[in-house]
Amino acid sequence: MLKLAALSVFYGGIHALRGIDMEVPEGKIITLIGANGAGKSTMLNAIVGLVKPASGTITWDGEDITRNDPRDIVSGGLVLIPEGRHVFPNLTVDENLTLGAYARTDKAEIKKDRERCFVFFPRLKERIRQHAGTLSGGEQQMLAVARGLMSSPRILMLDEPSLGLAPLVSKMIFDIIREINKNGTTILLVEQNARAALEISDYAYVLETGEITAQNIGAVLLKDDKIRKAYLGEGQ
Q1: Rounded distance, CA 23 to CA 160, Å?
Q2: Are 220 and 49 in contact (CB under 8 A)?
Q3: Cα–Cα distance for residue pair 158/31, rounded to 1 Å
Q4: What is the CB neighbour count within 10 angstroms for residue 27?
Q5: N or C end of the chain: which has fewer CB within 10 A?
Q6: What is the pLDDT of residues 13-48, one digit of tens each?
Q7: pTM for the full model?
Q8: Are 16 and 53 in contact (CB under 8 A)?
Q9: Counting beta carbons within 10 angstroms of the beta carbon of residue 30, is it exposed (0 to 12), middle (13 to 18) or buried (19 or more)?
């Protein structure tokens, strides 16, 4: 479905990604873990065309999209929910959701997707006329995910969705990510909460200073002593 081959990216003079090989199969939850500055967000930005690679290729359904315009990439079904939520604070919940579907013309399906968002996030329906800037951090993250779903993604990429959230809210977000996947959307998840991310992932990659240093089934990495010590706070 999505494949990165020998991907190399420079970001602000820093060699941020060094020959990355990675695959995101259809229907799976793929997780990328790593410390701050490892290059995780750079990888997502490269996939959606916000950062142009120095070398290597990004292939989507057999098509090379390495140099494609971000608008075409999103229209093709690759949608990124960036770190920090980035909702439109002066617009209502309803208006934020409408903007998520700005590139679509299939009105009947847009209506269905809106209702599906309210199934995932009933709290948003309660706050449909409320300005996004007045929502709590957890509610803003719900809105960011729902707005992404309004683009009708085939792959939904999430950058640190649990960042800054209370543990109970964070758990709810991970539960919803799992449900979104069960409903047919492939997930590429970047997350510093390694335990929670690995628990829901089908397969995971570990990124350190721009290089993939480990990869395996999520449950296997959870039992790896090096991973447990470095990312789960165990064995210190």
Answers
A1: 20
A2: no
A3: 10
A4: 14
A5: C
A6: 889 999 999 999 999 999 999 988 899 999 999 999
A7: 0.93
A8: no
A9: buried
What values do phi and psi take at 86, rounded to 5? 55, 45
Q: What is the mean pLDDT of residues 202-223?
A: 95
205, two tokens: 């990659």
> Which residues of the chain form beta strands (DSSP E)?
2-11, 14-24, 29-33, 55-60, 63-64, 78-81, 155-159, 186-190, 203-208, 211-216
The answer to whether the beta carbons of residues 137 and 163 sit under 8 Å apart is: no
Q: How many CB atoms lie within 10 A of CB 56?
A: 18
How many residues appear in the chain?
A: 236
53 vs 68: CA distance, rounded Å: 11
Over residues 45-93, the pLDDT tens digits come to 999 999 999 999 999 999 999 999 999 999 899 999 999 888 999 999 9
Nearest to residue 218, comparing CAs of 209, 208, 231?
231
pLDDT recorded at residue 235: 55
Check pLDDT > 60 for residue 228. yes
Q: Distance between CA 150 and CA 97 in Å, rounded? A: 6
What is the model's pLDDT at position 236?
Answer: 46
- Cα–Cα dist 182/169, whole Å: 20
Residue 100: partners with Cβ closer than 8 Å, 6 or more residues away: 146, 147, 148, 149, 150, 151
Tell me phi and psi for residue 112, to 5 degrees: -65, -40
CA-to-CA dists, residue 213 to 38, 187, 226, 234, angstroms: 11, 21, 11, 19
Q: Which of 192, 177, 7 is nearest to 81 (CA)?
A: 177
